[in-house]
Amino acid sequence: RPWLRPFFVSVYAALAVVPLGTLLAWAFPGAGWMNGAARIAAVWLAAALVFLFLSWATGRYVEGANDNGSGVAVALALAERWKAEPIPGLAPIFVFTGCEESGLRGMRRFLATADLPPGTAFLNLDNVGGGRLHYLLGEGMLVYRRYDADLVATARAVAQEFGDEIRPLPNLLLPTDALVAAAAGYPAVTLLAAGENGAIPNYHWHSDVLANADRRVVELAETYAWRLLVAIGRRAGA
To answer: Could you give the number of structural domains in the chain?
Structure first.
């Protein structure tokens, strides 16, 4: 829904305004407007929490064809292709995480328990079932974290092979599993499809069903991801 993105952006902004406004109002007693801004933000946060609770209490589970059945499908397709065409220079691990919506906990748990070799990089596939395919340049809600420059340059070079079909996206303003890897110091990049307005099609809505997934975009994501893996393998070999 088009209002979801500005809604979450406003919530993130309120999360920053409440403590910052309260601190500044305490430090500068004469600036009463700061305290007022913090109070308004606190009221908005309370209203948002009520809305989220009602959505949880009255809502229904969604099928999740795009988010993130599409990413799982592409990962499985890449694994099948890998069995027939191993890429020199790469030793892939296909990871299917859970609990992304509750604090990226699946990815956090994986990084906490996995014994990863030096040079490990992450290619994250998220919501690749509709809209225009993008590769993200970085992530962050309150603090922006740029992805590894070399990996982004490789993603950009491979994307140019597809003309205007695949574009860069500076920031989604919603976290993906790649943010956890990037914050831990690993090269990471996310592939994600979104509409021309930047919104993810059928995002967290009952319309996120298989019939509304765009097979062409899913297949494009698979082709692009494979070529990107080949390019990463060549770079690793060099």
So the answer is: 2
CATH number of the CATH domain containing 165: 3.40.630.10
pLDDT of 150 > 70? The answer is yes
44/73 same-domain check? no
Cβ contact 122:181 at 8 Å: yes
For residue 169, the surrounding DSSP H or E stretch is: strand 166-169
Rounded-to-integer distance, Cα 90 and Cα 236, Å: 8
| Token pair 């979450």 in the structure block, residue | 8
Residue 72 and residue 8 in one domain: no
Point out the domain boundary residue: 23, 40, 58. Answer: 58
CA distance 182 to 91: 19
User: Is residue 15 classed exposed, middle or buried when 0-12, 13-18 and 19+ CB atoms within 10 A define those classes?
Assistant: middle
Burial of residue 54 (number of CB atoms within 10 Å: 0-12, 13-18, 19+): exposed
Identify whether residues 127 and 9 lie together within a single domain: no
Could you tell me the residue range of the domain that residue 209 belongs to? 65-237
Q: Using the predicted structure, report yes or no on whether residue 238 has a pLDDT greater than 60.
A: no
Q: State how far the Cα of 87 lies from the Cα of 105, in Å rounded to an integer.
A: 30
Give phi and psi for 133, each to the nearest 5. -75, 135
48 and 70 housed in the same domain: no
Helix (H, G, I), strand (E, B) or coil at 188: strand
- pLDDT value of position 32: 66
| Same domain for 217 and 138 | yes
174-209 per-position pLDDT tens digit: 899 999 999 999 999 999 999 988 889 998 888 999
> Which residue in 185, 189, 178 sits closest to 118, CA to CA?
185
